[in-house]
Structure formats: structure tokens, C-alpha cells
Amino acid sequence: MYDHVIWPEQFHPKISEIYGLNDIDVEASAETVWKLLVDAENWHRHFPPENQVKILGGERELALGTRLTRVTAGYPMSLEVTECVPGRRLAWATMVDDDDTGSTAYHGWVITPTAQGCHLLTEETEQGSFFLEMIGRQNPGLLYRYH
After folding, report:
1. Digit-coded pLDDT (tens) for 45-77
2. Under a CB-based contact definition with an 8 Å cutoff, are residues 62 and 90 in contact?
3. Are 69 and 53 in contact (CB under 8 A)?
4. Sheet containing 67-72: which strands, arranged edge to edge?
5. Secondary structure of 121-146 in the HEC alphabet?
């Protein structure tokens, strides 16, 4: 059995309009996967849609409290890292910029070492009318495909 994301109360799947879980066994060490996750400005090297990520404040890698911006599916968003256990857990809260509905999301990663490398689990919840319309109604299943 693998660990799951530790949910802040306001982002828990039981009260969120949208929830997604994806996981995979990876033939790479937890350390290798971790280095790729915290190197946010280079996510596009492995996932081309993430080509507009900018870490704010001068950090080179994600860490607890790091703020960053990104454009996802054409929409600018602001993020803050809320959990960071090096090599094991990473999570951030997201707000959609210029969205007066207050739509938010929470995305977490859990890395578990295995004999062949590691198990990578990612979970996300989304709340608010922006996500409900864009992901829930206009693009059902997008969260799973995007991850």
C-alpha cells in the first residue's frame, strides 16, 4: 500500500468538485524523480505544455514556501509550495489568476522507493466554477490525461 497526499481541509477530495489520481511505477530512483519534480522551470523538457513556469524569488528549485507562476492550458496561475519532504513528498496550492470566482486547486506528489526504482503517485483536487466549467464540463477527463 502506498501513501497518499495529505490534504489541507479546504482541498480535501470529499468537498472538491474535481479529483484526479494517477500513479506509475518508475524505473528510476526516488532521488532522480525528485530532482525532476523540483526543477519546475525545466518541466517542459519532459512535458512540453509546461513551458511557461517561472519560480519567483530567485530560487532554482521548489522548496517549502516557494511561489511560482505557470500557464496551464492557456490560463495563468499562481502556486505556492505547501509541503516539501525532499525525495518523498511535494505539494502546492494553486489559484487561477484574474479569476473572480476564487477557483483553487491542490496538487500533491508522493514518491515511494521500490526494488526497481520508485512508485510515483499524484493527486489533485479542483474547486470553483472556473475548474468546473473548463475541466468538468468542457474537457471531461482532461485532468487524468494531463497528468
Report:
1. 988 888 899 999 989 999 999 999 999 877 899
2. yes
3. yes
4. 18-26, 117-127, 104-114, 89-96, 75-85, 67-72, 54-55
5. EEEEEEECHHHHHHHHHCCCCHHHHH
Give the closest residue to 5 by CA, choosing from 124, 94, 112, 115.
124
**CB atoms inside a 10 Å sphere around CB 22:** 14
Residue 62 in 3-state DSSP?
Answer: coil
C-alpha cell at 7: 490534504
Is the model's pTM score more than 0.85?
yes
Phi, psi dihedral angles at 41 (to 5 degrees) = -70, -10
CA separation for the pair 62, 56 (Å, rounded): 10
Give backbone dihedrals phi and psi of 54, rounded to 5 degrees, phi first.
-135, 120
Amino acid 24 reads I
